[in-house]
Amino acid sequence: MSTDIAIAPALAGGISDRSFRLYCYLVLQSDGEWVTVQDAADACNLTNHQAREPLAGLREAGMVESRRVYEMGVRGRKTWHTHFRLTTSRAAA
């Protein structure tokens, strides 16, 4: 993990506590990799639905980026999953 990632953007912005927790998880644990909403929610002790709005807020603020992937779900059916990661300017190199 790189130590040149600052959490100053999160501290300076008017983001919620949940957004800050999710942002810190992405900074400290994701190593710039794509993370599912469910993985981020589990790590921050939130439900999937509690994590969606804060992650969308971080995306709107330009702190994270997202992508939707059509992949196999846990029940064996294809479904859309949203993945998030730090924006490339903030991700570890």
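^ that was protein a. below is b, sequence first then the tokens
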Amino acid sequence: MITLDLPKELEQLLDRFAKELGVSKEKFVLQAIGERIEDLEDLAVAEAALAEDDGVRIPLADIIAEFGDGTDEDGNPLHAAE
């Protein structure tokens, strides 16, 4: 359980946006905190991937040569759009 004393201006913004979205202040705050935590997790994963990046790149032409461009002989997509 967390109890927060919000500055008056922030409390007013919270009230306004929660009402506009038709959700409780608690739900709005929980969603905002959850999204922020997810953003920080994504950032950590991206930073770890960048740290491990060896700089090697594969040209698109090489990938298309090996796997094709995703179309059949007539230029039609091999997979339906999702």
